[in-house]
Write a structure and sequence with these properties.
The chain is α/β, with parallel strands linked by helices. The chain is 33% helix and 23% strand. The protein is built from 11 helices and 13 strands. The strands form 4 sheets. The chain has a 5-stranded mixed β-sheet, with helices on both faces. Strands 8-13-12-11 form a 4-stranded mixed β-sheet, sandwiched between helices. The longest helix has 23 residues, at 232-254.
């Protein structure tokens, strides 16, 4: 399921387009200055190492579901649709409110009800790209006509705002964004190449423990239950290599050079990782979008936020080739190269 050949697309007679996008960012804000007052850090240190100046935080009483519903409502509105027009909703998140029922089921209900299929997908920061690949493939094979994919995260609830939790607290923010994927009559539109990978041996480099047994045997800070734990150095090393290799492999599968891609829409985890990819492939700055300074790392919401902002600005539009790339806990990594 890593490529979609031109022959397969032509035989299906079904293309896939992005019919609408939308996002929601909660009004609460945590600046680097705020963090300076809470832990041993500085604005200069954070910006230099991550590129982040601020991140958003849900207000008291705002849940993950609230963020997802607002983003879903915006995406449906942009597409001129209601939830009753959708066959399936995929909610990509690491923070589902419950496992039974899936939070996605309640999001469908909150959006107006109906009988759309609904599921939560957990692939950390790769969640939206995983989900858009699945949505595309279900539409391409004819089993679905429209799929709403939402990436939503309420990550600040899993951060400890002290020096002990500095490694994750400086990075993560809350947000949600989504896209409506829809069948169309032009089979040339849709995914040209895709990939979804994991390496479970690296799970302990980024994990969220809910009880004692969830910790690695050699873990420190075992009292920090319900808090994100990250080996920043290991994740950075993994991300830099994986990110560049993933772009290279996806381009080879599609048999196109990097210059033919109009925009790279990448997970916003660290500006240094984005710069490394841009330099390796000689990508002009205007073709690799960066907004991490305003939102921080919003995990599964990161890629769709970029997509929505780019569409609204007219920088991503029909007829272009656009590559989506993400990597995260799991460890997971995924790509999705589209002919829009």
């Amino acid at each position: 399921m890593n490529t979609t050949s031109p022959q397969a697309r032509a035989l299906s007679g079904i293309g896939v387009k992005i019919a609408g996008t939308g996002m929601y960012v909660p009004p609460g804000v945590i600046t680097n200055g705020d963090l300076e007052a809470l832990m041993d850090t500085s604005d200069e240190w954070i910006v230099q190492r991550t590129g982040i100046s601020k991140r958003h935080r849900a207000l008291p009483g705002q849940s993950l579901r609230h963020l997802a519903v607002e983003a879903g409502r915006a995406a449906l509105g942009d597409a001129g649709l209601s939830i009753q027009d959708v066959d399936l909703l995929i909610l990509a998140t690491v923070g589902a409110e419950t496992t039974c029922p899936a939070t996605a089921c309640r999001v469908v209900d909150d959006l107006g009800g109906g009988n759309a299929g609904a599921l939560d997908l957990v692939a950390a920061c790769s969640g939206f790209v995983y989900s858009m690949n699945l949505a595309h493939n279900m539409i391409r094979c004819g089993s679905m006509k429209r799929v709403l994919v939402i990436g939503a995260e309420h990550l600040t609830q899993f951060c400890e705002y002290t020096t002990r939790g500095r490694g994750t607290a400086i990075l993560f923010g809350d947000a949600a964004a989504g896209a409506v994927f829809e069948a169309c009559s032009d089979p040339s539109r849709g995914i040209l190449a895709q990939a979804m990978h994991s390496d479970g041996s690296g799970w302990k480099d980024l994990y969220l423990p809910y009880q004692e047994r969830d910790f690695p045997e050699d873990a420190e800070d075992r009292d920090m239950i319900g808090v994100l734990h990250m080996n920043g150095r290991a994740v950075f090393k993994f991300a830099v290599k994986t990110f560049c290799d993933l772009i290279d492999d996806t381009l080879k599968k599609a048999s196109i050079p990097a210059d033919d891609v109009d925009m790279f829409v990448c997970h916003q985890s660290n500006v240094r990782i984005l710069d490394a990819a841009r330099e390796r492939f000689g990508i002009p700055a205007e073709k690799l979008y960066v907004n991490i300074e305003r939102y921080g790392n919003t995990s599964a919401a990161s890629v769709p936020i970029c997509l929505d902002e780019l569409r609204k600005a007219g920088r991503v539009r029909d007829g272009q080739k656009v590559m989506f790339v993400a990597f995260g806990g799991g460890l997971t990594w995924a790509s999705s190269l589209w002919q829009l």
